[in-house]
Every structure is written in structure tokens, then in C-alpha cells.
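Bit of a strange request maybe. I'm writing a small parser for C-alpha cell strings and I need a real example to test against, not something I typed by hand. Could someone generate the C-alpha cells for this chain?
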Amino acid sequence: MTTLLIKNVWLNGDIVDIFIEGNTIAQVGKNLAVTAQTTLDGTRKAAIPGLINTHGHAAMTLFRGWGDDMPLEKWLHERIWTREAKMNEEDVYWGAKLACLEMIKTGTTSALDMYPFFNATARAVDEMGLRMTVAAAQFDFFNKNNTETTKAETLQLFDDAKKYGSRITFSVGPHAIYTVSAELLQWTRDFARANRLLIHLHLAESRAEHDNAVSQFGLSPVRYIRKLGLLSPELVVAHAVWLDDEEIAMLADHDVKVVHNPNSNLKMASGFQFKYEEMKRAGVTVGIGTDGCASSNNLDMVEAMKTAALQQKAWRYDPTAMPAQDALDCATANGAKILRLHSGKIEAGYLADICLVDLCTPAFTPNFDFVSNLVYAANGSCIDTVICDGNILMQHRQVRGEQEILDRAAAVAYRLMEK
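Reply from user aminoacidic:
Good idea to test on real output. This should exercise your parser:
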């Protein structure tokens, strides 16, 4: 079993050592009397749990800057779906590798992702050493033949996923209620429950989605999926901007998890009044996501925490809304709960997913309140070292194979846009 010792690191106001055995934190304390195969000097660094990005589309790094400043529906139909239709597995693989590199560089160790070509994403994540719940993306566009094809593909991908290690978890990803039929949604519900899988769904993202659901189904998005029986602890909904209080209560009653994607919502003008305080009071677990780089332009969870907190304060006219600690909890402990991981804290027995923050930067000078500085002053460049599953993925901001990933992903992206 491999062992790793982090010496003299700042954690919750104290200078401590962190001892890791295999993929688990074994001990946390001052001046630990242990020896390890590898020792890291944590002097002038702070330890935080690895950040958890609970909604993304990894390979959309290839679309960064492609189709900016457009309405959501036009953006999807004219700029995104037309190019995605031309993508192959190799394209997705290099886009996902670039996403993994970006997540490592900005302190994310775990993610929930949804995109076509499941195996391409899973292979990239497996190679890069991160932890990810990868959703098999499902679309049938209300076509019966597509419905049956998608069911068969989902079953095949469920079997394919077994060849990956424990860091890769399979989930199902019906895209949205406007791209997936009721029949496929209900089949996915039953399949997920039978196999204890998460269901990853876009829901109530925009006013147009809400209004179209009322027109097409006679119900708002949340009420529609309640009618279909989808509300359950397995369900993770992304965005959930257009909700009323009754719908929030429905989500809470069924232990549905919600992911706030502040940068994407703002950039796509999907809505800005995300009801975090109402969800928190109701008992809904809320995580934070970046969404894909086509709509948020980066995968920096430190930046996403700041935007989430500032957005709450702005629309409520309340500077006490979503304190910095809440934002950090959403990006760590809440994310772990959503992904069913024993992580999100730096304590004995938890998974060894840890980031070391460089305190020798302007953002942490002076350092009256570390969490406030992390959320309000810093960005992902403050991350010096990343450990996932007990393995060092980045040290002194260096990631193995970084230049090749940048070069190959850029070449793929330019070629894709020329097709």
C-alpha cells in the first residue's frame, strides 16, 4: 500500500500533518510520528477537500469561445448540435482530456458529467487520475425508433463501464424533457432504480423550457417529471432556475439533488434568481457546477463559487446571502453527497482527495479569513498541488503530459469547426 505524508500544512486554523494510506486519509494531527514513501512540504500552503463539479460536459472544452453571445435555443440548434453531430470518439477523448487537465489545474478532483461517447470520456478520466460519475447521454427526440436504440445503447454502455476502475462510476443522463420522451424517461427511471444509479437531467433551466413544458405537457417541468414518477433520491437536476415554492417542496420531499450553474445561467441569460436560500431551508442538497465550456467558458470551480455567492447577494439585495462557507460546502461536502462519495472533508477515513492552496499570493495577503479569500479573492490558479485517490496529479502546478493535451485538443477543435 502506498503512503503519502503532507507535513506542516494549514487546515482549519491549525498547522497539521495529513497521513494518507492507499486512497484514504489515515490520520490528521500535529507532528504525526509516521513515515511515508512520499512526503510533501505543506509549509505556507492550506489543505482543502478536492472540489466537486456536479454538472458538466467535459468534451465541450472544444467549443470554448464558439457561439458566444447567442440566445440559448439558437445557440444549441445553430452552433452546438450541428457540430456535435460531426464528432467522433477520438474528438471527445481529446476534449475530455483537456477538461481533465483544466479541472486538475483548478482544484477539481471529482465531477458529474454527461456527453455522448461515454467510453471516450471514461477513458480520458481514467488515464488522468480523476474521479468522475459519467452519464450515458440519452436523446430520442420523441422518436420511437430512437427510443429503442437508446435503451439498447444504455444497456451496452452499462456493461462497458465495468472495465474501468473504481474512480469511474456509471450513471444515466436523459438530456432534458424537451429532447427525451416520457417513455424513455420512465424506462431510465426503472433502470436506474434497479441498478442504484444516478439520473443526471437538465431541468427548468430557462423561461422557454418552462413555457414550452406548460404548452406541450400542460405542466411545469418539475410537475411533469413528478407525474412521470422521476422524482427520487437518484435524481440530480442541473440548473433548476425556474421553480416555485411548491416545486421546491416536491424536490425536498423526494430528496432530489440540485446543481447550481451560476456562470452558465448568467452567460446564457437563462435566469439569475436561483433560489438557494429557499432550497436550503427546505432541505434540498445543492451542489455547484460549471456546465460545459461552451456556455461557461471554463471549468474553474473556485470562480464558480464566487459567482454563486455574489449572484445570491445581488438579486436578493442581501450581502449575507450565501456566505463564503456555504459556497465552499456546496462545492465540497454537498457535492460528495450528490455523488455518493465519502469525500468532501479532510478527516480520517475519508477519501484522499485533497488540494493544497498556495498562500504566498496576493489573494491570501492578508489572510484574515481563509475561506473568504478563497471564495471572493482567489481563482483556480491558487491551487498548487492536487491529490486524488491518494495519487499526486499535480505538484507545483505541473501536470504530466500537459503540453501534448493542449496541442492535440486544439488541433481537434480547429478541425471540427472546419467540417
